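Sequence in, structure out.
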Amino acid sequence: MNTIKERRQDQRFEALDNILAINIQNFGQVINISMGGLRIKYLVRPNEPFEHSFKISLLNGAGDQCIKSLACKTISFNDFGPIAPSINLFTREARVMFTDLTTSQKNQLADFVLHNTLIMAHA
């Protein structure tokens, strides 16, 4: 009997539809999130450079919650597409891990996850 060990230390929750992750180069829709990281979907052009360590900000659709400058590193990514061959855009899904968060950022993130995911549906 094969047992697959879960690599994540933190449970992930489905993000509400209006949650964005933003950095200097791109922005995209957060698919799921945990205290340890998130999965994001965004548009890219072919061969667009990909940073493996970066900072993001999280913003909810209501604009009443924002967490700035969360340090991250890429765990993996997949490109899908093209979504529109005439404009040469692809969809990229990236899985990122938060790194070196301050206590304040951890507290903000816990509150953000609580109020911007389907966490209550899992309770």
